[in-house]
Design goal:
186 residues; DNA-binding; 9 helices; homodimer
Chain lengths: 186, 186
DNA sequence: GTCTATAATTAGATAGAC
DNA sequence: GTCTATCTAATTATAGAC
């Protein structure tokens, strides 16, 4: 792996485990195995690094959305896959979603990064709304009144479930927080 | 107000706006209007300060729980009051719940503080479970199968809603994320 | 209880050699 | 692209005077 990618990889891990203010160029350099000064060749400032890390992170999700959109899966299958994907990214409660970490340290971010996180959340909302709408039409998800309200509630529930799992370093909290929603997927 | 209380007040605000790693003794000293060195007379270390801040924060909630428990309010009224109380504490999306901020910066906390946050979450769960159970019995909350699952989902949903509000600095995100739950309260 | 002064460490960089 | 060396500012403290 090239150095730039190694930096991005370790920086994402660090941000998701310790938050934006919880790691430094020095830490990442040590992880990657280079000197601190060499970091600045790849990323001139910490904001630059963060923007690149989040772009890479969000692109993975956007790619996943696109892949799913091309499948013929029904609403319930899509939502179940979303929950499984989200659960997988937090490992054993060691990490959280990068966008949550950045929300908490919001005051330290530059405007571009805040906009990027907002867009990430908006695209999650759009995808979830579409999945709930599909589940309403095809009958695979029970008890839906308004797909957009469902999407908003679901996104919040997932984010909160991730935070709870992080506190206990235990993914079963994620499962219990989402148990009710899962029961509605046939 | 005495100096110690002023320090606790400003430190809580800072932790909830910038996260555990986002503020220093220097910042708080400036806010309070004393010199940095004077901070250490009141709180020898940053972990000591954080434990005291969280104790004060959680006690306010525990007191609120006790007050509510002595009322004759039905399940729905209790849950609506919980949502209103939570919403009020985040102001205009400028702050988040202290326990969320600490969860994200979990790696920087000492063991006592982690245990304190766990207890806080457990007590929220107990109170919410009781409120949902009440709502199930008195019929004031619709569609309850298992009160404990409901409590877990609700707590996650509230936490996620707070994070979303923080990103946009807009409490309407909180309202929209909780709209469905509110509709179930009669 | 608050202050000045200071120390050790770290963070975010920059300059310039290789 | 990576390194050593260096810089400035901030952070978490400690010592000791008032």
């Amino acid at each position: 792996m090239d150095t730039r990618s190694a930096i991005l990889e370790h920086a994402e891990r660090a941000a998701r485990q310790k938050g934006h203010n919880g790691f430094s160029f020095g830490h990442i350099a040590r992880d990657v195995g280079i000197r601190k000064a060499s970091m600045f060749h790849h990323f001139p400032t910490k904001p630059d690094l963060l923007v690149a890390v989040f772009a890479r992170y969000s692109q993975r999700f956007y790619g996943w959305f696109d892949g799913m959109d091309q499948s013929k899966a029904n609403g319930a299958t899509r939502l179940a896959a979303y929950l499984a994907e989200t659960r997988a990214t937090i490992e054993d409660g060691e990490s959280i979603c990068l966008s949550i970490a950045l929300c908490v340290d919001r005051d330290a971010l530059n405007e571009q990064l805040i906009d990027d996180v907002k867009e990430f959340q908006a695209r999650n909302m759009i995808w979830l709304t579409e999945a709930f709408a599909r589940g309403q039409v095809d009958g695979s998800v029970s008890g839906i009144s308004d797909p957009e309200s469902e999407a908003m509630a679901c996104l919040a529930q997932v984010d909160g479930a991730i935070v709870m799992s992080r506190l206990h370093k235990d993914t079963s909290y994620f499962d219990r927080a989402l148990a009710q929603l899962r029961l509605r997927l046939s």
